[in-house]
Predict the structure of NAD(P)-binding domain-containing protein.
Amino acid sequence: MATGFNVVLGAAGQTGLECVKRLLVVSDLPTRAVVRDTAKLAGALEPSDKLQIVQGDVTNPVSLREVLQGARGVIFAAAGKGYWSAADVDFKGVQNLAEVAKDVGVERVVLVSSMLVTRKHWLHPMRIILNNVRFSLMDNKLKGEDALRNSGIDYTIVRPGGLGNGAGGQCTFVTGQGDLMPLGNINRADVAAVCVEALTNPGAKDITLELTAKPGLPEEGYEAGLKSLWKGLSPGVH
Ligand SMILES: NC(=O)c1ccc[n+]([C@@H]2O[C@H](COP(=O)([O-])OP(=O)(O)OC[C@H]3O[C@@H](n4cnc5c(N)ncnc54)[C@H](OP(=O)(O)O)[C@@H]3O)[C@@H](O)[C@H]2O)c1
């Protein structure tokens, strides 16, 4: 039987909160929701014996070590706030996580990144806009991805398309690799379901994938679709 607990970093963020909710429903392990200010989660979640709300900051390796000691899986759903935040949070925050997670024996790290992150799209108008919304956002996200890929820890990197806040559980997942897929959208709740599945699915090990969704359920159903979406994806490709 699995021991330990799962951790969501950036748990008060819109995708992070969906990850916590999903974990509380589908995982037998406790879920540790890590936020910079625990007051931010007040009233956002149903009380649960399996839920721990803990203060932590991905820019501080000491803080990360405290919240990750004993963890089994970790989802990084944090994203910087403020124009100059991408280097500290989206790059070095992931780098800190990879180093500490490896050190304390975390089994898998799942990172929420973004489509268009690779340099092959450096002249794509949307990438240029995103790189200016926060200084060098996409370049720093890619550096964060690379730090995780090169860390030696088991990882999954999920690169969603445009995020929406609609209900989850009603779509068919569309996946790609190599940052070549046409742009599309997906609800945060569905990204969260994929991130949570990635924590334990053997097929998600060392996978980097792009992720969007189309309306309507697959013939096999939503939950089976989550289990099977890793088939045909290759470790290491990015
Ligand atoms: N928006 C889109 O369409 C889109 C598309 C593709 C990919 N993405 C990516 O998807 C991810 C999730 O997006 P989202 O909109 O769900 O995020 P979000 O709501 O902006 O949440 C980000 C969270 O990160 C937390 N955070 C910031 N700095 C932190 C730190 N130093 N330590 C710990 N936590 C920290 C913030 O906490 P505080 O509450 O304390 O500030 C916030 O709750 C992001 O990486 C984003 O770039 C977004």
